User: Which sequence fits this backbone?
């Protein structure tokens, strides 16, 4: 990446695009390298195949370990209590989003929602319900 960044810096210098640079060459070079790394990571993320079976939540993989009560703060105990009172769809969406780290597109594909907007609306309603339960 460093060599590619240096070549990009050289190319910009040859093309006369370095006159309006307000930072040092060192800072500018590291900035080029940083964005090249970001681009490479984005490309790598795009090329990873989606394996739908990795996020299947079934009986063999519990959504959340409800029996684990050690080291829980009072807020976590309260959250766990009211989380159990939510409907199955709400628990599924919130668990997949916050606990499993899936994005709305992945949740829509996995749970059979029409699109990501439906998932966002469902998540919003579920959070609102959970907040109302906690504050009541």
Assistant:
């Amino acid at each position: 990446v460093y060599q590619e960044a240096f070549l990009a810096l050289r190319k910009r210098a040859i093309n006369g695009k370095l006159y309006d640079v307000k930072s040092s060459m060192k800072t500018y070079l590291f900035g080029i390298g940083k964005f090249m790394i970001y681009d490479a990571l984005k490309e790598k993320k795009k090329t990873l195949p989606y394996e739908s079976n990795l996020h299947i939540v079934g009986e063999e993989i519990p959504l959340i370990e409800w029996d684990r009560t050690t080291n829980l703060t009072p807020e976590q105990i309260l959250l766990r209590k009211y989380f159990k009172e939510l409907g199955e769809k709400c628990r599924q969406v919130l668990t997949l989003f916050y606990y499993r780290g899936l994005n709305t597109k992945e949740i829509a594909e996995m749970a059979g929602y029409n699109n990501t907007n439906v998932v966002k609306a469902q998540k919003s309603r579920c959070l609102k319900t959970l907040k109302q339960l906690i504050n009541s």
About this structure: Confidence is low (pLDDT under 50) at residues 59-63. The CA atoms of residues 5 and 26 lie 11 Å apart. The two ends are 55 Å apart (CA to CA).
